[in-house]
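pasting for the record
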Amino acid sequence: MFVLVFSGLAFLVTSLLYSRFPDRFDYLESALFVQKFEHVYDAEDYQTIFVGSSLTYRQIDPILFDSLVGDVASPSFNLGEAGMFPTRSLKVAERLILNPPHPLKYLFLELNRLDYVQDNFSSPEIMFALDHADFYFCFLTILESGLRIDKKLYYSAQYARAYLYKYLGFGYYDLLTRKPSKARLKKSDDFWGHQPSGFLSKDVQLSLGLGAKSMTEDRARFLADTAVVGKNLKMIQKKYRNPTGAYSLTYLNKLKTIISEAESKGIEVILVLPPRGSAVTYDMCLPIFQHLPYSHRIDLADPVAFPRLYTYEYSFDKIHLNSSGAKAYTEYLSLRFNSITSKASSQACIHTSLVTARQGIK
């Protein structure tokens, strides 16, 4: 009984403290990401911004994109960040839409599964993002998805652990003692100098001597078992042949709300489904993707349409493309984007012609 009462009081007290906690975004995201985020506002130059995890950060080259799409959407900037999955990525998108950096017109948002939070459940980034509404959103998204029941139970338990860790007060000290981004800069200073467009592939980073130990280990594991690419390809082919029918209406409505709010600010949001993800990614996201409006979605995961993205030659590790793969990925993205904008332009011309014709008849 005492434990329950104590836990209840801790929950109420920390909820009150968090409600009064300042918006310390510049403290709680990584030092590199905060630099990039502030840069898009200081530059006042980017018509297009890309937001997502390392599948965005490591694989979309803004300079190449600009050369392929022309003035309609350039210049662009890669605001991707390693490990930035929903809901963190959704919160970044909402922040950009609430206060758009001039002259933003297009926001590419990576469509991905929720953060697993099994390893980073107590990180300041997760503690900052996971409020009551966020936990409710994650819980419903998992519950409504087409995941197997064991997966639903597992991911629900992971989010419950993170939620309780925060609201029983264990995460509050880390938030209070977190240093601002400028005080946490290490190799980020040199790192930023090598990625003025926000993009840096993993193989290039290693060649510059800036690779983390985990990156070297991932590369070594991949080279020891390159057959993993083929196994992943077969899994994704199966997901496309037999997609799960169930999907999270909560997640879909969240994305539609982001699209709608962006449109009210003159910004087009385009959801991008990346290749080489996990089974959970496609069980959760492929059905949602198919319910998004055509003009707001780009599928780059389809192994039939993009077989080159699943080859050994374009691989850095199991999940990530190397610089050659990033080049192909960016080219595919540009082609699909040009297709969307050309159709939109044609429809606008037809509408204008119809209006003119009706006015002429009158």
